[in-house]
Amino acid sequence: MKVSLRWLMSLALLAAGSVALAADFSPLTNDILNCGGPTAQPVPQDCGCDPCCEQGCCDRWYGQVEMLFLTRSNSSSFPAVIRVTDEGNALPGTTVLTTNSPTFNYEPGMRFLLGWRQDDCQAFELSYLGIFNWNATATAIGNNDLAIPGDLGLASLDFFAADRMVLSYQSNLHNVEANWVRGYDAWSFLAGLRYLTLNEVARIRSTDLDTGTSDYRIGSSNDLFGGQVGARLRKTWDRFGLDATAKAGLFGNAASQSQSVTDFPPGFFLRDARSASGGQIAFVGDLNISGCYQLNDLWSLRAGYNLLWIEGVALAPAQFDFTDTPDSGTQLQSSGGFFAHGVNLGVEARW
What we know:
This protein has helices spanning 2-15, 150-154, and strands at residues 32-33, 43-44, 61-72, 79-86, 89-98, 107-117, 122-147, 162-184, 187-208, 212-237, 240-263, 268-294, 299-313, 336-350. The chain is mostly beta strands.
C-alpha cells in the first residue's frame, strides 16, 4: 500500500510539471521499473529528488560536453606607449597606448562534466573548463617619435624615438573542480574543491628604423586552490528545461612574474630575467544559465550564457615597470582582477 501511494503521488507530481533533482530531466517514455525487487510495486522511472524514493530509479551517471566562446575584460589602464613631445626628454608626452588598449575577442574553449549519483538526492561531480588562447593586440605608428614612459625609455635606443610599437596581451585559463551535490526538490546545493591556473604574457615590441627591433616581455602565472560553495536551480517543462548554477569561493594564489627587456645592439639586455613571486588571497565566482531540450531518454541539447569573475591575481600588464634601477622589475602586483563572459553550446547525456 505504501509503494502504491508513492506511485500515485509521483504521477500527480509529474502531471503538475514538478521539478526534479538538478541535472535530471523528465523521461520521454512512461516505462515502469521495478526498483524495489520482485515483490515491490512498480514506481515511475523518474524519481526526481523525492526523499521517499530510495529504490535507485534515477540514472546513476550523467555528463556534459560543451563548447565555450568567451571574451574577457582588460581593465588595466597604465600608459604603455607615449608620443615624445621633446626630442631630448620622454616626458612630458601624449599617451598613445595604455595597457587596456588591446581588446579581446570571443575565443573558443571547452567544458566537460561527469557526475555520479550516490542516491536520488546526492551526487558527485568532476568538471574541467579551459580557454586556451585569449589574444589581443594594439599598434601605434609614429615617425621617430614613439617611446615607452619613464627612465627606461630614456636609457634605451629601440624604445625611444621609435617608429612603430605593438602592445600584445595573451592569456589562457584552466579550471578543475570536484563537487558534492545535495538536492532539495528544484534546488541543489554544492560544496567542493577547485583548482584554477591563469597564465599570461604581455609584450611591447618596438621598431626603430634607425637601430632595430626589441622586446619588453612579461610573463605571469597564477595557481589558485581552495574551497567553494554554490547553488543550482533546475526546472523542467516536458522536453524543455532551465538550469542555473552559481558558485563562489576563496582561494590561495601562488603568483609569480618574470620579465626581460632587450635593446640595440641585438642580444643586449637592459633587463634580463628579473622575477618575483608571492602569495595572495583570491576570489573566484561564476554563473551559468542554460536552456535544455531533451531529444530522447539519453541525450539533451544545452545552450546558455556564462559569467566568470576573478579577483586577486597577477595580471601581466600590471607588472610593467618603466623605472631604471637595480630593483626595477622585481616587484609583484597581484591584486588584479578580470571579468569573462560568453556562451556555451553542447550536449548532455544520462545513463
